[in-house]
Every structure is written in C-alpha cells, then in structure tokens.
C-alpha cells in the first residue's frame, strides 16, 4: 500500500532523486551488457575511492543475494556460519544461506544484536571433528537488526579473533551507511580497515531503487566470484542501470547525507517517545531504528494510522524505522497519534 | 562500452521511454515492500488481461532466475529436464539449473533450435529406473536461441506429448514477445492456451530496465512459489519499481510494438545481407536474430566497427540481434560496412 | 583401537553372531542386485510383521543417511525442521541435513533431550511468511541422545500436534530398540501407532554390521523414495547382505534381546555409580546411556583405562554407553577403576 | 532373484571367501568407530604398498558415493565435469553428481567408451566466460562401461592434457582391477603414475561385500575430504568391517586373481560366441564384459534361461558380464542355450 510515511522499514521509501536522475542520464544508446561498460567502470572506481584499491566489488540485486553469495564465496558446504539469533541471514532469508551454501548456521543469543568472541569461543570446540560442521565464518550485521552499532574496536576484536582461528569475518551491511554515520567514521574504517573480509554493502534501504554490492577485502577470499554471482542468478544484463545508482550513491556523500538524516530522525523520534508515559525505549538508538515496549492495548490503535512491525517476545515491542526521506512532520504526526492513544 | 548500436544482444539496448516514465511516476511517497502494494496489484491485473484469470505470476530479476526457479517449482532433485543442446539453460546459466534444482539437464541436438516429441521419446526409456534421473520437464525456448519460432501447432503437440507422459512443458520466453509478434498470435495463444505449464516471461530484452516474470498456467505446478522465489534470492524489496515496468510493458501493446519493430529490423537486415556475395543466412529469420555464415577473414574487420557474437561451429557464423530501438540507419550502416569489407 | 570393552558408543561393539551367521548363509551363488532378491523380500516381510502392512521400508547404510533422506522425502528446500539442540541431526551430521535437503534446522533447548508442543508453538509464528523457512517437520530422537525415552503418550501428543499444523513427525530411531525395550512396548506401538510419519530404524548400534532402514508410515510422505535413496548414494548393490542382517535382527526378537541386555547393563552401571561419592547421575537412565557429573581431576585418570565421551557443559559430564555385548564384568571393572581413582 | 549364474553384472556375484573370512576374524571385542582402529590402519598401509606413500585414501559404501564425493572434493559448484555420454556418472547415478556437487556434466559421444583430448578441446572454449560452467574435471572410466580399456599411454595423454588446462583427471575405477589385469600393469601404473588425480577404487564388483575407496594422488586436490565424506553420508561407524575387506582384497593379489579370472571368462565367452552365426561381438573384449549384437527374436528366449542386460541402440545389443566366480561350465551352459536358440 502507498502510505504517507511508513515506519515499517527503510525499504518502504522510494528512490532518491539523485539516484533516479543518474538512471535517466544513463539511458542513452546501446551498451555492452553484464558490466563491461563505462558506467560500471566508473562505479567501481568510486568504490575504490571509498574502500581502497585492494578490493573486489560485485553488484547484485538483493541483500539476501549479497549475504548468501558473499558467504558462499568463502565457505565449503561442510562449514558453518556463526551469527546472531536475530540476524537477517538466520531469520529472514527463507533458508537461502543453507540452501545455496550447504552450510549450517549456528545462532548465538544476544541482548542487543551484537556478539563478541566470548560468545563464539565455546562453538569452536568442534573444530577438526568430522561429525560437526566446521566453523568458518563469523557473520555480523552493522548496524544490527536492533538498531545498535558495533564500535570500531569491537569490530577489530572480532576480526582478529576470527582470523586467529582461521575464520572469516562477514558483515551484513544492509545499513552500513547508518552505522558509519552514527560512528562518524568512514565506510572503510569500519569495514576493510577493521578486518572485515567480506561486506554486503547496502544500497536499496538508503535511497537506491535496486542494488547491493559484495565487497571482498581479502583477495584470497574472493574465489572466482563472477561465476558464483552468475550461478546465483544475480548477474544483471543491463548492469549500467545498477552501476549508475551506486556511482550517484557514492558521489557527494549522498550515502552519508541520507544516513545522517535517517539517524537524526530516529533520535528525534526516540526523544519524543521517551516523554510519553508507558513507552520504554528498549535498545540504544544508534542508527535508524527505534524499539519501544508499549502496552498491547495501544498497539492496535496506533497501527490503524501508521505502519510498523511488531517484534516478538514476552512484552510487545514495536520497531519503528526511519529512512532517508522520513520527514520531521511525520515524526510529529506519529508522536501525536501515540500520545493521544496513550493518554486517552 | 557504449556504442551507437550494438548487434550483440537485445539486452544492449536501454530502457524504453514509456517504461522509464512509469518508474518516475511510481516514485512517490512510501509504499509497503515485497509486492503488497497497489502498483504490483495493477501489474498482476494486466497479466491476467493478457494470459487469463487462471494464472499465477511472480516477478524476478533475471531470465536465469525465471528459468531456474520456474523449473525448481515443478521438479524434484532426482528428475531431469530435457532441453535443446543450445538452449540458454544448458549453455548460458553457469549450471544454475543443476545447482539450484539438483536435476540433470539432458540436451537434445537440433538443427534450428526447435525439437519435437520424436527427439524426446528415446529419452523416456529410463522412466521408473531408480538409477536414472526421471524425465519430468520438456523445456523449450520461444523464440529459440537461433531466432526461429515454434508454431502454435508444434507447441500444442509438444505440450500434449509432455502431459501424456506425466511431464511439464516449460517455456523460456525471454523473447516470447518477438515470437508472438512473428506469429501474429496473442501471448496467451502461444503459452497457456497451447498447453505451456510454466513460462519465463521476458521483459528486459524488450525494453524494460530489469524484470522477468514466472507465470504458472497449471495451478498444480505452482507449489508455494513465493517461498522458492525468496529462497532463490529473487524477491525485490522495492517491488513497485519492477511492477510498474511490467504494467507499462503490457499497456497499449508496448510489448508488441517493441517486438514488431525488432522483428522488422531483423527482416530488413536479412534482406540486405542476402544481397551481399559470401554472406549466407543460415537460419530462418522469424524473430529478431539473423545468423549468417561468412568467411573468417571478414569477421575481424567487421568487428572493428560493430559489435556482435560469433557462434561456434565448423564454419564461422555470426549472430546479429536487433532490438526495440535498433534504427533503420544502423542497419544500413552495418550493411555498408560489411559490403565494403567483402567487396574490397 | 581395539579395546576389551568400550563405553564410548554402542557402535564400538561388533557384529552379533546371529547376524554374521545370516551373512554367511546368504553368500551362495549369484543374486540380482539392488534389492530385487528373495533375501530382501524376506526382510521386508519381517518389517511388516513388526510394523504393519501399511509401511514402506528402504535400507540404507548409515543413521545419517536414514535421517537425511527420510527428512528429504517429506520436505521442500524452503521448509524447516524443528529438533532438539543436542540432536544427532543438529550436532553430529556435519550439516548433511542442510546440505542435502536445503532446509533450515531450528534447534530447541531441552533439559533431558525431549521436547513438547509447548517448545514448538512459538516457532510456528512464521508460518506463511515468505521470509522465513516454513516449519514442516518435528524431528525427535527415541531413545534421546541423553538416554531418556519419550513415553507413548508424549509421542502421540507430539504427533497430533504436528499433524494439526500440517507438519510431519520424524523419529531418529538409531536406538529405537532400546526405547521399546525400556517401555515394554512393541516397535509399532511407539512409532506408526503413535503417529510417527517417518522413522530412521537403527540396526548398526544394536548388533548389525552395517544397515539402517527408513520406514514411512504415512504413505503420502513416501514420495518416490527409491530415487531419493539412489541420488543420496545409499543404494547397496549387493543388497542381500544388508537384508539378511535385518531379517536376523527381527527374528526371534534378537533386536529386543540385544536392547534389553544393553539397557540392563546401563541400569547396573548407574546403580553402582550412584554408590560412589562424587559421582552424580545427571539424566534418568531409561535406555543404554549413563551420564555422570564427576570432578575434572578424576576424568583423565579414568580415561587411561576406559574409553568414553566427555560431554560439553559447565561441569564435566561423561557419557557411558552400554551395548548388546557389554559384559557384567566390564561394568565391575569400570566401577573398580572409578572407585579406586575417586577414593585415592 | 538367486540364480545359478548371472551375466547381468559382476555385482550379482557374492562375497569372496577370503573377504568373508576377514570379516569374521575382525569380529572380536570392541573397537573405536569411524576408522580410528588398527584394522583401518592396516588397510591404509596396504593401499600405500600398492599406490605409493603419497596418497590419501578414504573408504565409502558405493561406487556412486566414491565418484560423487571424489568429484565434489576437486570442484566448485560453478564448474563442469566432462565425461563420456555412456559413463556411469552420466547415466546411472540418478543425477547424484549434479545434485551433490552442483556442477554440470558435459557428455562426450564415444564409439567405444573411451575419449581423448581431441574430444575435450572444443569444450574448453567457454573457459573464463561467466555464463558457462567452467570445465574442471575430465572423468573417465577404467575399464570403460563398454568393457574396453585405456592404455597407459592414453591415460598419460589425457592426464597431461587435463593438467595443462588446469583441470583434474578423475577415474571411475569400479573395474580398475580388471583393467590392470588386462594390461598386465600394476594398479599404480595406470592410476597415480599415469597422472590420475582422483580414483574411485572399486571393491564390490570384484569380490567384496560392500566397499569402495576414494584415492587422492594429488594432495592438493584432497581438500578436507573427511568432512565431505561425513556430509556425504558415507562414513561407516563400524569401519573395521569395511577395512578388513580391503586389506584382504589387496593381500596375496586377491584383487588380481579375481580380475584375471573374470577377464579370462569374458575372453572364453567371446571366443565361443564368435563361432555362433548371427552373433557379432561389437566391442573389443579387454576386461570382463562382452557385448554382442544379436537378432531381437533370440533375445527373449535366451533371457528365459540367463540374466543379462539389453543395451539401448538401433540394433539390439546385449551385455554379458563375467565376475570373479563365473565358472567355465556357466559359460558353456550359456553358449549351449544361445546356440540351441539361434540354430533352432
């Protein structure tokens, strides 16, 4: 459904005008398909400006595609991927990771979506035992599914731990822009420089129409990815129209402007919600998500006017996502609605 | 590379203006993701106008995705798919069909890309033998990879044969529009009405930016496809921007106008080529492809000015594809170049 | 290593003499391969005597093979299997279930290896959501990996629950004989009659050389299993030598005699261990496993004389398995060793 | 069915007495499972005596298991395996290779089951093209499915060719013993020494009860095979009973004695058949198979008295397999039957 503003997910937003303009501009004449074109070349150059020259980048269609194929490239089917219990790869990809990689996902319980080497250590006891899938990847989400953000130090610690156990660090960066904006660090500082081996770099949730990228920082982990992408049904024929989106995204800090805005809207939303009796913010608001616990009786009423997701658990928690084009007045409207319902 | 006009493939063309306009128009406000939006509803309605009410339609990103997931939906891993040796699923999908369905592809030799029940019959001897993958799908391409077109009668014969042996008829319709335009029949007459069970309906090669559809005519064969699509990494979050492309594509006969033009350009090209000594048209020109045998010494020279594909085989054959925006003067330019080279 | 008696696992035992004798007797002349022989026919008949006429039975090589292929037969790749966190399919099959079925395994925490509908209910909230693997199978182990046994009532409750949610009940019966012996019920009463849809019927751990069976009680769930077995690399060419083992196993209650003995040895062992200060039995001894918590300092010393497995966890727990040919004096020897070490 | 002597396949034979005796002898006491036992150690030593110290050997249950897992160990899912059109992996493994490796099988037509680099060369044109599965393995069968045998020179030529194109040479050696016996060469001379990278070493067809081995000559190709075997459901718990079969098989040339006998019986059979008018030997008799073309009207009658396979094709061809325990009088009986029918 079209709605004035949705708080369900940042993918309910549309295409940022600068992105759409780039698509329009690229629609001139014929162009070799599958990425051998100057638009793609230019986009790849942009990526190297942001992430350094030592990367390999590949464009795909979806976040699930980026995660699954990125992990596929660094695993064998008898290995396992350690992830958070609430991670997108564990909950929201319909077993695509298991199906396409053959690997087991081993889920770690977390309070705030983040986990540490301490959580992983006990899972490594099976190393070398042929009866057990062999731990090979630590997969984290940045920003997490709970709107929290790993610090650079936490990332380095996890990466060092992974590498010291002959494992890779994979990052689901569907909202990496929001994390970088939150930390005030560059994209590179919280990915390759922190030791991330493979990154799913998100575009769609932050203003693109369609497009995610898989970035390999560890050249050894790349492993003929172009074949994996094609076999994974993620190779676009009219590639230029994905490439120019990314070029625009990485030009004039569009990625950052969008993320800063979305994060700011989340902070504003949280600040207003905190003032409402009966609303409890349950997670640190570090990116563009706000989680609030609120009595069940209110939820139905609020849902009649605004869209958002209800999070599972004992007490009802609702997730409110902001995006690059959430407006301040949308926040105020939502707050008014909640206030009225709670206070009535 | 950007080129004035490419004859490599119809996917070297860009986005038709009516399609791009539809994308622009849909970029208003927020909208529920994953297809629960009014744009998608409208597009599905258009599909039913063209194919009848008894279909199920799902949008995916690529032709490979459409073929693989469509076949996945109607097979079990111990079954086999009978296809032409030069079919896209056999040659150009990097073993994605085998990898994602687990099935064997059994390839049939053909002269013109088309095959008949006679070619399939000997392959059915293994039915019931647990040592052999069990024939379950006949997969054909319409128009074929050689630019030929199955008649409606040929399709009905194949479909009846498949069904009488408890098999499905799958059609790779990456260029189904060109086939319908060629035959002067509706889309429905050469698919569902002819007995096709599952159709990969092509959009990208005929003027869309990104987008293919999987259509199930046989409701029994559908089999919970929404899960297969998600697991197959082919579910778009900002679905509206694929849906509106399809809506425009199926409105005011855009699909047909584009296909008729491309076919006409191919006929024109063939007519001109026939006049050039040393050029032999090797396949009937029934859709938007022209295959010519030409001495090897000429090919390199022509390639310096125009892009196209060289087809394997004893004598060199080159494939020239036309598209919705191939211009008459491009044809004339190409003809002049070839003439000059051959006559020099 | 060959050892006088091992308490590591019941598969450290050898071949029961009646089984070996059957193999010897079958080694006469030539015989059609792959199961079209009179030995296999006779074995299948034995199975029907025990489990009823309405079953389909297939022989495979290993417990992992039986579990994986049995589950494969009743699932599609986008579905999930709910199992105990410590189940064999989750911990000890090197991700074979994920790899061969494509499904996700969803693990449930348990205290004693058994779980109930209450544990499964919250996991069904994702039904119908295309982003989530769809719950389709409840897989339990009988006797469990912790040596406990589901009562017939508990089984019926689980089966009814599964069926009422359009799911199947799969049972890993690697030690189904020990469970039946423990409950004093027939094999049929705790499998098909209780509502089990697919059973991995264990032979190897209870006196056979090589051989497990997959039994389908729900004919609808069978689904062309002979092809799945062949594709799963579990079809024996000289099938008669597996069949005759099963025939002997199911004749004159050999399965029951063996299981009763193993169970009795476990009870004896537990009774003796309880008398030793510092040894705590941590699980009910209902089949042929004894779990004891014991101070870490003792474990190394005991291991110098007897083989067994150390179970993970906070306080060290060791698992002692008895088998069809564990002797009373082996128990006494082990007890003496432990006593001496603990008391020194 | 039990029959006096079958000519259907060498797997219709039983267990050689020396093999059965070895199983009986190993059935003493308890023994660590999964291959960490002295029987397995001894068997591995025997393999090294025959194949050299630089090998890795793993035991599995079936020829299909050996082929599929051996190929799995040296491929990625986007690669292809080039094999003969009539090879076991292409025709008789129910798409297990495709399903478990994800790879495409590319079949080469042959007259006599053997192929050469000339047949493979045209298939390498796709190297580097992301749309095509990448050729990585040449898989041959020795002795072939048509009873012919590659010479050592032919093997070396194929191996050199494979390696010079960054490919592996895989050999399905279900009847490798018959090939070595035929050539008068050691097992090593026609495998590792000739450049074979991975060998499926057959035991079952030549007198064992159950057991095949996967041998890696190229250590780089091994790639953590123990996990692949476990995930491939081919790890035996009571491994000792497979190991001792192999030990006996490789002791006192049992493998060779059996193979020489079977080959001799085939020669005898062929010599007698040649004398019968209307019988034409269609393939060189180099191992233990005899193929004869014979009028259709005779086949039914012969089948009433002896079992064998009818081979597909234009004119009816029947395959007669001999084995380690085919007796001369069985041959004479068969010849008499055929003679009588043909001459009546």
Topology:
Four copies of one chain form a homotetramer.
Chain A: E1 2-3, H1 17-26, E2 30-31, H2 38-51, E3 56-60, H3 63-73, E4 79-84, H4 88-91, H5 96-101, E5 104-108, H6 117-120, E6 134-141, H7 152-164, E7 168-173, H8 176-183, E8 198-202, E9 212-216, H9 225-231, H10 240-249, H11 254-274, E10 280-281, E11 289-293, H12 296-303, E12 309-311, E13 317-321, H13 328-343
Parallel strand pairs in A: 4-5, 4-6, 6-7, 7-8
Antiparallel strand pairs in A: 3-9, 8-9, 10-11, 11-13, 12-13
Helix pairs in contact in A: 1-10, 2-10, 8-11, 11-13
List keywords for this structure.
344 residues, alpha/beta, seven-stranded mixed sheet, four-stranded antiparallel sheet, 13 helices, 13 strands
Radius of gyration of chain A: 20 Å
Approximate strand percentage of chain A: 15-25%
Count helical runs of chain A: 13
Shape of chain A: globular
Distance between the termini of chain A: 29 Å
pLDDT average of chain A, as an integer? 94
Number of strands of chain A: 13
Low-confidence stretches of chain A: none
What does this structure look like?
Four copies of one chain form a homotetramer. The first copy, chain A, is an alpha/beta fold and 344 residues long. Helices cover 38% and strands 17% of the residues of chain A. The first copy, chain A, has 13 helices and 13 strands. Chain A has helices spanning 17-26, 38-51, 63-73, 88-91, 96-101, 117-120, 152-164, 176-183, 225-231, 240-249, 254-274, 296-303, 328-343; strands spanning 2-3, 30-31, 56-60, 79-84, 104-108, 134-141, 168-173, 198-202, 212-216, 280-281, 289-293, 309-311, 317-321. A seven-stranded mixed β-sheet of chain A has the order 3-9-8-7-6-4-5. Chain A has a four-stranded antiparallel β-sheet with strand order 10-11-13-12. In chain A, helix 7 (152-164) links the parallel strand 6 and strand 7 (168-173). Chain A is globular, with a radius of gyration of 20 Å. The mean pLDDT of chain A is 94. Chains in contact: A-B, A-C, A-D, B-C, B-D, C-D. The interface between A and B is large, with 59 and 59 residues.
């Amino acid at each position: 459904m079209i709605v004035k503003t949705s708080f369900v997910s940042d993918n309910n937003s549309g295409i940022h005008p600068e992105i759409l303009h780039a698509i329009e501009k690229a629609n001139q004449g014929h162009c070799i398909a599958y990425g051998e074109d100057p638009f793609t070349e230019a986009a790849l150059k942009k990526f190297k400006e942001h992430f350094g020259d030592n990367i390999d980048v590949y464009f795909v269609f979806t976040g699930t595609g980026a995660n699954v194929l990125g992990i596929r490239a660094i695993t064998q089917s008898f290995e396992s991927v350690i992830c958070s219990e609430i991670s997108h790869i564990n909950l929201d990809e319909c077993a695509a990771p298991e199906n396409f990689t053959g690997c087991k996902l081993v889920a770690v319980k977390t309070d705030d979506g983040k986990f540490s080497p301490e959580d992983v250590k006990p899972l490594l006891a099976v190393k070398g035992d042929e009866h057990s899938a062999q731990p090979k990847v630590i997969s984290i989400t940045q920003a997490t599914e709970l709107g929290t953000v790993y610090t650079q130090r936490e990332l380095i610690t996890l990466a060092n731990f992974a590498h010291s156990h002959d494992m890779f660090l994979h990052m689901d960066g569907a909202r990496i822009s929001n994390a970088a904006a939150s930390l005030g660090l560059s994209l590179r500082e919280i990915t390759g420089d922190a030791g991330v081996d493979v990154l799913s770099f998100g575009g769609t949730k932050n203003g693109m129409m369609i497009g995610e990228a898989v970035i390999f920082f560890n050249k050894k982990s790349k492993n003929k990815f172009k074949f994996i992408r094609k076999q994974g049904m993620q190779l676009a024929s009219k590639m230029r129209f994905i490439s120019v989106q990314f070029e625009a995204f990485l030009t004039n800090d569009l990625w950052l402007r969008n993320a800063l805005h979305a994060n700011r809207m989340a902070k504003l939303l949280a600040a207003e919600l905190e003032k409402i009796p009966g609303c409890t913010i349950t997670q640190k608001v570090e990116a563009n998500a706000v989680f609030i616990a609120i009595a069940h009786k209110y939820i139905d009423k609020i849902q009649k006017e605004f869209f958002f997701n209800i999070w599972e658990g004992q007490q009802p928690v609702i997730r409110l996502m902001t995006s690059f084009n959430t407006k301040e007045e949308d926040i105020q409207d939502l707050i008014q609605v909640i206030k009225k319902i709670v206070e009535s």
